């Protein structure tokens, strides 16, 4: 299936979509930290509730969130198995001749799975509701204090925005080249791992060459339009903190305090 | 005759990408002398590899002549200060619609050039609106470039250029990767920009497009071969074939008729005149 | 091999917000060994149609019958089938990857399992078909000009000696001479090997000149199919689909405005038109 869809911006209008990207970035980033500090059922319940509220507020179909979970399903399964097999403390909950599963193992497996799901939910919320350019702008603005230490913030943001601009183009190009080589009898599906990897050389080389050509064209076009780097540039986009952003941060403060009290 | 100063002037221009490695007779452009007046609509024709894109890039200082000089208005592309002014004066639309859009939405892309010039935000907004209106992309402001058709992408590129208020717009084969509909859209727009007073320089290898201009320049084998009003082109068309260019259909027909003994010697300036000639010959009898 | 599309529908990204139905209830047949042109506006589904035929996409519903092979939504192991089909995509030079021209052309035959001698034979033959001089064989394809790269890419497909040769806008971006050359190569290749050719184009001149059967597409449907005359006779139909008639036809139409016995619009070659006019002129005088 179309894997670019995972983590893609869903262009509809909602309260979450309208928030300032900076407050969303900060909110999600802090949430990710909180997820690792939470250590009891109540805290996770609260976090899950916030995740669900986010999904509702985003007005995006649950199906899409569910689909993005597919990306981490293997990680969840793997860590679950790992803990069920190797964690050996607490009382045994299930005894079979080959394997004994302990209470602590189940607990750890459950906690980690919930953490992964929460992480993915908040990451998806950010990606689904923030257009790539807003995200770039938000990051540029949040990182701008780093300029003092000579970090090339403008260049970084420009690179990111160009990369985002070209993802769909390169995706279509990859699809086309794969089809073209398939039509010339290339086989991407059989043989051992080494052969399969080698089979992609006829795809990777043309892709690289075309990316170079595009990069060169784009650089020329940018120069022709007077681009000489970040100095002396003005900006069309201005970010503005509104009442809803303040509301979001207040909510966050309340949640953080609540979690702190719940923590054992 | 009124003396007007030329807008663009190329004098003794030679250029090569690796001048130290190449023999001079193989340079990408050789001995170009040419002037273009303000408000002209010029088509540049030539087979692939003849040096058209190189020519275009000399006009806005993307390339600096190895020998000779390119002047636009009062400035020379060879000095740094001149280059800065010339980039504003000469806008350029390229061939591949995918590779000249920088930003992730239509509005941001039109803004890109203005941001580079440091235009204040309040001034930018009306200029963007106006540019989008000229190219007919109002209502597309928040679209992503990947979701535009080829013709729309080229129109967006044009909007990005005209927002910067250039005097001259150079189109480097900007129609060649488009479908017929996209081509028509871009041609219409060129005509309109010319009527609004822009100097339009259009590089193409379509004979049909050559007749839309007032003046046609042919570059072949890295040299300027022909420079004439487009209405004279019909009678020069046998030359086009020699450079591997498309000869207009009526002229090809005339040559075929001549091979079989029917000689039409009257000058022909356009397709309709050829139709009229054939009527005359067929009804003479 | 007879090709028959039976009630074929194709939907991109099924079950996502980006779901898009590109083809709808397609019924169409191509005869063994015929030259078929597929015409239609951009987005009408031409590329999707030929990718189904190439075994690169599977129909969402319906059946594609090619000789004894039946392709449907759950078909598997199309590798064998694909070996009989050659596809020249739009801008095929973007698929080149080998160090030398000869190696790149050999990629297809090698995948078919040909032995060394056979591969060598086919490479030499394919290079001569597309008019590449033999001393280019050890050059890197990336050092060649755009037109030559296109020839290398096409040679790579011809070397597979496909029973069905598919070309998706093969002349896009070439200059006039490059376009003429390519069309004549295709014509000769088709006549020599008698393979079925499916040629997607939005250039009506190409379609009229080469095709025995034309498939007219609009909005994901085949709205008409038949001999060129049958298609181009129906001007309003074409215009609804955003298309035009060939230049020769347009020209004959303007000629006919003033002729008592009109010239047949079934003429698509300029030389045939010249013959017809000479014939009338002789008869008259
Ligand atoms: N970046 C480059 N480096 C070296 N040679 C180049 C480069 N670009 C073009 N050339 C050469 O310069 C000549 C003119 O090219 P170009 O101006 O692109 O022609 P056109 O636009 O008419 O097709 C060609 O012979 C080409 O090979
Ligand atoms: N990979 C794809 N994913 C989604 N939609 C597509 C894809 N490829 C083509 N389409 C859509 O399917 C329709 C038909 O496309 P296509 O077959 O490429 O038409 P044509 O070749 O006639 O221009 C268009 O509306 C196009 O946007
Ligand atoms: Mg060029
Ligand atoms: Mg197509």
From TrEMBL, chain A:
<dbReference type="Pfam" id="PF02361">
    <property type="entry name" value="CbiQ"/>
</dbReference>
<feature type="transmembrane region" description="Helical">
    <location>
        <begin position="109"/>
        <end position="128"/>
    </location>
</feature>
<keyword id="KW-0472">Membrane</keyword>
<keyword id="KW-1133">Transmembrane helix</keyword>
<protein>
    <submittedName>
        <fullName>Energy-coupling factor transport system permease protein</fullName>
    </submittedName>
</protein>
<feature type="transmembrane region" description="Helical">
    <location>
        <begin position="246"/>
        <end position="262"/>
    </location>
</feature>
<feature type="transmembrane region" description="Helical">
    <location>
        <begin position="71"/>
        <end position="89"/>
    </location>
</feature>
<feature type="transmembrane region" description="Helical">
    <location>
        <begin position="44"/>
        <end position="66"/>
    </location>
</feature>
<feature type="transmembrane region" description="Helical">
    <location>
        <begin position="149"/>
        <end position="167"/>
    </location>
</feature>
<keyword id="KW-0812">Transmembrane</keyword>
<dbReference type="GO" id="GO:0005886">
    <property type="term" value="C:plasma membrane"/>
</dbReference>
<dbReference type="InterPro" id="IPR003339">
    <property type="entry name" value="ABC/ECF_trnsptr_transmembrane"/>
</dbReference>
TrEMBL record, chain B:
<dbReference type="InterPro" id="IPR030947">
    <property type="entry name" value="EcfA_1"/>
</dbReference>
<feature type="domain" description="ABC transporter">
    <location>
        <begin position="8"/>
        <end position="246"/>
    </location>
</feature>
<dbReference type="InterPro" id="IPR015856">
    <property type="entry name" value="ABC_transpr_CbiO/EcfA_su"/>
</dbReference>
<keyword id="KW-0472">Membrane</keyword>
<protein>
    <submittedName>
        <fullName>Energy-coupling factor transport system ATP-binding protein</fullName>
        <ecNumber>3.6.3.-</ecNumber>
    </submittedName>
</protein>
<dbReference type="GO" id="GO:0016887">
    <property type="term" value="F:ATP hydrolysis activity"/>
</dbReference>
<dbReference type="Pfam" id="PF00005">
    <property type="entry name" value="ABC_tran"/>
</dbReference>
<dbReference type="InterPro" id="IPR027417">
    <property type="entry name" value="P-loop_NTPase"/>
</dbReference>
<dbReference type="InterPro" id="IPR003439">
    <property type="entry name" value="ABC_transporter-like_ATP-bd"/>
</dbReference>
<keyword id="KW-0547">Nucleotide-binding</keyword>
<comment type="similarity">
    <text>Belongs to the ABC transporter superfamily.</text>
</comment>
<keyword id="KW-1278">Translocase</keyword>
<dbReference type="InterPro" id="IPR050095">
    <property type="entry name" value="ECF_ABC_transporter_ATP-bd"/>
</dbReference>
<keyword id="KW-0067">ATP-binding</keyword>
<dbReference type="GO" id="GO:0015087">
    <property type="term" value="F:cobalt ion transmembrane transporter activity"/>
</dbReference>
UniProtKB/TrEMBL annotation, chain C:
<dbReference type="GO" id="GO:0015087">
    <property type="term" value="F:cobalt ion transmembrane transporter activity"/>
</dbReference>
<keyword id="KW-1003">Cell membrane</keyword>
<dbReference type="GO" id="GO:0042626">
    <property type="term" value="F:ATPase-coupled transmembrane transporter activity"/>
</dbReference>
<comment type="function">
    <text>ATP-binding (A) component of a common energy-coupling factor (ECF) ABC-transporter complex.</text>
</comment>
<dbReference type="InterPro" id="IPR015856">
    <property type="entry name" value="ABC_transpr_CbiO/EcfA_su"/>
</dbReference>
<comment type="similarity">
    <text>Belongs to the ABC transporter superfamily. Energy-coupling factor EcfA family.</text>
</comment>
<dbReference type="InterPro" id="IPR027417">
    <property type="entry name" value="P-loop_NTPase"/>
</dbReference>
<dbReference type="GO" id="GO:0043190">
    <property type="term" value="C:ATP-binding cassette (ABC) transporter complex"/>
</dbReference>
<dbReference type="InterPro" id="IPR017871">
    <property type="entry name" value="ABC_transporter-like_CS"/>
</dbReference>
<keyword id="KW-1278">Translocase</keyword>
<keyword id="KW-0547">Nucleotide-binding</keyword>
<keyword id="KW-0378">Hydrolase</keyword>
<dbReference type="Pfam" id="PF00005">
    <property type="entry name" value="ABC_tran"/>
</dbReference>
<feature type="domain" description="ABC transporter">
    <location>
        <begin position="3"/>
        <end position="244"/>
    </location>
</feature>
<dbReference type="InterPro" id="IPR030946">
    <property type="entry name" value="EcfA2"/>
</dbReference>
